[in-house]
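Worked Example 4.2. Consider the chain below.
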Amino acid sequence: MDIGPVGLLHPGEMGSVLGAILRAAGVRVLWASEGRSGPSRDRAARAGLEDVGTLPALVRDSAVVLAVCPPHAALAMAREVASHRFAGLYLDGNAIAPGTARAIGRVVEAAGASFVDGGIVGSPPKSPGTTRLYVSGPKAADIASLFSSSPLEAVVLDGPVGAASALKVAYAAYTKGTAALLLAIRALAVQEGVDEALAMEWERSQPDLPARLAAAVRGSVPKAWRFIGEMEESAATFAAAGLPDGFSSAAALVYRRLEQYKDTKQSPAEVEIAAALRRG
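Applying the procedure from the previous section yields the following structure tokens:
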């Protein structure tokens, strides 16, 4: 389905891959370099995105806007796009609470746009079967059509705006929540001097946990700065549903204490992580 040029906000690790997928399908993909970092510019260039310079130009020239940014910026970004009277199709693909998704929908629809709620599960898609884009809302099928026959599987949920975000929150509450829990547990064991004994017991009775802890150190610690907002959105979702929200709130605090390791290339030692978690 050809629905016109797509504006991408912003070409981060995930967004740049989505942009490259659309470019490979022959879609014109725009981005705005004004105020963006050198790494963002590099990712956009590698993905073959067309730089239109400013956000007003992107809004003017795009039929679809895809917002893929850290969750703490999602609502502000929607307000900025709406301020330029965008009247096309707006997809929020961020890890946000259903309530936040509905708020974003109200903002962009008041300016004349149609809204699709999205949630991405998996890593940046390089091959089929690894990553799903869940979408919900009246125009969800239009977004799904953009990614047909691509490495990204678009799944239309039979539900209103907020359903895709709810699914993403539920999924991430476990994956990112348990990663944070493992990091905190190991920090406790280091503090009490029983880390080696705990590791040995895990090898005997919970043999999958050492590998999962290593994956958390390798994968979650460099991205902790991004996961703070995601876990705060998760906590808000649990609270809005009348459920205990302390799990996700604690995970957000764990990641906040680790945000100093943003995008680090070499994983810090577990004892260093434990010290960071204790200091706060």
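The longest helix spans residues 163-191. The first strand starts at residue 6 and ends at 9. Compare this with Example 4.1 before moving on.
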